[in-house]
Amino acid sequence: MSWLKVLGPAAVLYRWLGQGHAAEDEDDHDAAAERAYRQGLALAPDDLGLLVCYLELCLRADAFDHPGRAGRVAPLRARIDELAPAGSAERQRADDALGWANRGYWDDLAAAAGSGELWQAEAAELSERVTGALRGGSTGTGPATATATVSGEDVRQAELAAALELLTGRANAPLRFLLAHRTAAYVLTCLAALGVNQLLVSTGVVTFSPWGWLLWLPLLAAEGKLRAARRLARERVVARIEERHAREAKTQAEAESLKG
Prior knowledge:
Elements: H1 2-7, H2 11-24, H3 27-43, H4 48-59, H5 67-70, H6 73-83, H7 89-101, H8 105-135, H9 143-149, H10 155-167, H11 173-180, H12 182-202, H13 217-259
Helix pairs in contact: 2-3, 2-4, 3-4, 4-6, 4-7, 8-10, 9-10, 10-13, 11-13
């Protein structure tokens, strides 16, 4: 919103504003996102980025609570099909959004399983990169250096920088150790949790024991650091992209004013 005040109305800024509100996934923010998209489309009716973002917002709208928003899916899709050539990124994104909106229960289950597997693979990969970067601290490529040199729009580099930032310090030393031996930590934690529960039940201390599962807390805390790092990295990258778009819009506006 601050960039709109500085640079004036621009379709790309309204698109970023709308996406920011839509990411909150709350009714008030959805309404604000719709206003932003409609204001952007008033300036640029054929902006495919705005049309696709608006379509995604309308697809997730509840037809009972927001019938007007849900009813705009068909005209938006028709307009996108008219403007976007077959095989284009915008057409593919619209098709993906429609396919996701029409999924069933088993599709949701399969998607959740696939998402979990993807997260585990990405977390393992990030854990390895973090461990390698931390071990490289003695050679001058440690957390401070890595964080200071990452200022671009590369999400992977931003994730590494954020993870190093969140895992530095003595208090996080146990978490760094767990991430450095992630597979072994999972196996040993599972065996230890089952063993503690079995021991408490077999000795008659309790008839049912959930206490062993508390041994998972340190590992869950380490995984939470990785999740927080990925979230922080994406926020930073989005902010950098917004700044770049704002600079480009400002440069374009200045060039047009000079021509005028």
